[in-house]
Amino acid sequence: MSSILATALTAKSGTTCTADVNGITTTVQVARDLAVAAGDVILVTRVGAQWFATARAFAAAPPPPAVGDENQAPPPPKPLVTTGSLVVPPVETRSWRPIYSGWRTDNDDVYQGEYGGQGNHTGAVFYGTKPRSLAGATVTSARIRVQRLSGGTYAAQSTTMRLMTQSKRPGGVPTLTSSTAGPSLAVGSSTTGFTIPDSWAQAMVDGDAGGLAFHTAGGSPYVRFAGRGSWSAAFTLTINWRRG
Questions:
Q1: Which residue intervals of the chain bear CATH 2.40.50.140?
Q2: 61-65, 69-73, 189-193: which has the minimum mean pLDDT?
Q3: Is 53 helix (H, G, I), strand (E, B) or coil?
């Protein structure tokens, strides 16, 4: 007689189970009080031409896979998600008007509208290339810091904010695209968290836009916002983002 280890291929049924014995699928007689499950390592002994299972070795067999799952690959790991915030100060603030010299050189404040027949302003805020450092990220929110200076009616006034193509000041009038309501502030007040559309900040990240502007076709109301020379935090943009 010889005893070796084999692997049960089926559970005990009646008095036998099927096992892998030396690489051969074999019907094995199982001892009366021995429970055998598929996957168990069993001690088998050959008596004549018949194999007998006399004991189980090691730990119990693992549970069998669910029907249909035998050949399925494990699910891929979830992608790593990272988030963050990017603070982008403007590279320049300035205002354009179609008369006099075009771009104002007496200050770098951001004007909307016309005062005293001196030309309808387009106030512009240029963010340069820093937003593009987030290329491939998804913008989840974005906000700007804004302060209103004296000029026009003291009470809060509606403004029209525009998305601007250029990231740096062009020689002529800037190119404006989308439009939305801008900050409504009384003279002397400010906000550190005026929300801009996510899609606008995403366009800056993707390189499809470069800044913000303020312009109304009719030239009213007349509003003056602080530029970088008047307030160092003026129009600082904070972009919240995620990857993955």
A1: 2-57
A2: 61-65
A3: strand
